[in-house]
From TrEMBL:
InterPro entries: RecX_HTH_2nd (IPR053924), RecX_HTH_3rd (IPR053925), Regulatory_RecX (IPR003783), WH-like_DNA-bd_sf (IPR036388)
Family assignment from sequence similarity: Belongs to the RecX family.
Native source organism of the sequence: Sutterella wadsworthensis 2_1_59BFAA
Protein name: Regulatory protein RecX
GO CC annotation: cytoplasm
Lineage per the UniProt record: Bacteria, Pseudomonadati, Pseudomonadota, Betaproteobacteria, Burkholderiales
Region described as Disordered: 30-57, 80-120
Gene name per UniProt: recX
Biased composition (Acidic residues): 92-103
Single Gene Ontology BP annotation: regulation of DNA repair
Length: 272
């Protein structure tokens, strides 16, 4: 069926022939307006679950610096930030700082007095500690203990401690003389060794017994020292005098030195 026309309605010629004017106007207006895009429903974006960041390390009042990051586990390794050595304060707090030298000295004295005092080992324990490190003669150990005495320790206690050590076998002049003579025999002659032992307060019988325990004779020991130091016989009198002085200073007798410089001493088996 065709459209019923109404009285007074206005018609215009269009592309399809005679059409109402109001419909043509709507068509022109709709053609002039830009097309509106319909909103599209966007799916929600799923973010990948990031691992929780954990900070591992110590922190200081100055902050921290990052030393490493583990991306897989999310661990951030940190280290405390410290000031350069020149910028570090030598005082624990601002209250400790003082420009007055006398006041500063009094504060330091008060701090030192407030510190708990460590209990000092007894005289006997100190003597045992000294003998544990090396051998001592009675005279040397007595001098060492007397130098370490405090105001509240009795000097007479030193003698009682030494007697106790000798009775227990911890202190022995004979053992000290043997040990000292054996160690000194590598670089010293008999005269120098005897003089040192007498200076340490060792009795004469202990000195003679220690010298008898030395395995090699003096001339062989003199040859070992001469070979290490020189190794060649002197070419002139000046060189000979220099070698003689070197050997005599170390306590070797003139008879042993003469035999060495004349080449009359047979080299030991381990030096041949």
């Amino acid at each position: 069926m065709g459209r019923n026309w109404e009285e007074g309605e206005l018609f215009v010629w269009g592309d399809d022939g005679l059409v109402p004017a109001d419909s043509q106007e709507k068509a022109v207006r709709s053609a002039a307006e830009p097309a509106r895009a319909l909103p599209l429903e966007t799916p929600p974006v799923r973010r990948s679950e990031e691992p929780a960041v954990r900070r591992v390390g110590r922190s200081s009042g100055l902050g921290e610096i990052v030393t490493g990051v583990d991306e897989a586990s999310g661990i951030v390794r940190t280290a405390p930030k410290v000031l350069p050595r020149r910028q570090r304060s030598t005082y624990e707090s601002d209250d400790d700082f003082c420009n007055d030298p006398e006041e500063l000295e009094s504060r330091q004295a008060q701090k030192k007095a407030a510190r708990p005092k460590k209990e000092r080992p007894s005289l006997f324990v100190r003597a045992i500690g000294s003998l544990a490190r090396r051998e001592y003669s009675r005279r040397d150990l007595e001098a060492k203990l007397r130098r370490s005495l405090s105001e509240d320790e009795d000097p007479d206690e030193v003698g009682r401690v030494l007697d106790r050590l000798e009775g227990a076998g911890y202190l022995s002049d004979a053992r000290f003389a043997e040990s000292r003579a054996r160690s000194r025999s590598r670089v010293m002659g008999d005269a120098r060794i005897r003089r040192e032992l007498r200076q340490c307060g060792v009795a004469g019988e202990h000195v003679d017994a220690a010298m008898d325990e030395i395995e090699e004779p003096e001339e062989v020991r003199a040859y070992r020292l001469w070979a290490r130091r020189f190794g060649e016989l002197p070419a002139d009198r000046k060189e000979r005098d220099r070698q003689i002085r070197f050997m005599m200073y170390r306590g070797f007798g003139m008879s042993a030195i003469s035999r060495v410089l004349k080449g009359a001493v047979e080299p030991p088996d381990d030096m041949a």
